[in-house]
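Hi, here's the filled form for the chain we discussed.

Project: internal
Contact: R.S.
Residues: 295
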Amino acid sequence: MKRPVCNESLGAKRMNFLRIAGLVLLGLVVAGCPARKPSSGPPLKGKLVIKGSNTIGEELGPKLVEEYKKEQPGVVVELESKGTASGFAALLAGECDIAAASRVVNQDELTQARARGIEFNLHTIGSYSVAVIVNAANIVTNLSRDHVRDIFTGTVKNWKELGGADAPISLHIRDAISGAPLGFQELAMENKPYASATKAYTNYAGIELAVAGDPSGIGYASLDLADKAGVKPVAIRGVPPNAVTVNEGQYPVSRVLRLYTSKTNETALTLDFIRFVQSPRGQKILNEMGFVPRL
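And the returned structure, exactly as it came back:
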């Protein structure tokens, strides 16, 4: 199984080229691609069971299912989100058709699969990623991974510790109702707790607006909000957040989203749903919901 290659020695020219190319390609996905045509032939019927990742299942999965059922109204989709491990366990036990995963299958899961004569098929659908954003007037433009962790855990409290103005850092995060705070903790904070003095919002747009109005503010938001007026994205280890750096595995605050199936048990219905998710229509839905489509 191929893993994303992390190459931090890209020259400035190549990075600029890739950023421009990525934005052009992403623009085609968002604005220039026609909706997927319904399958030719008779409509599909049956039940599709998807279990696994909260990152996929909490918001993205229901929207994808909703739009898919407009094309295939005779299909019943059961969606359960109890974590990636639960999805693999269900797939190994024959209790689901698709395991939704926000990580690669681990060695123990592969060992269990071999013991049961199961071969996984992997279908990449996009990435989950957020940009760390600061007020547009902030002179800080780059942070290390340790800086990000220490800011949001409250270890670093003043911008002057990071080369910025002598001003206390104010934190803006997602509320606990969604899985977003946990996702950011896993990706950027080594699963350490947030500082006690934080302000929480029900969506990324709320964070973006708050940081735009707070000269000392920092938060995180979907990539499409990172360049809004009043805020700017911060590079992590010199890598800016964009569709190209995410897809190339360069930008660290991201994770690839995958759908796993059992090769011998794939059905026409299973493959039709996966094709829908990977189609221009499905990829547009990912982008509209703040995820990063495949390039």
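Let me know if anything looks off before we file it.
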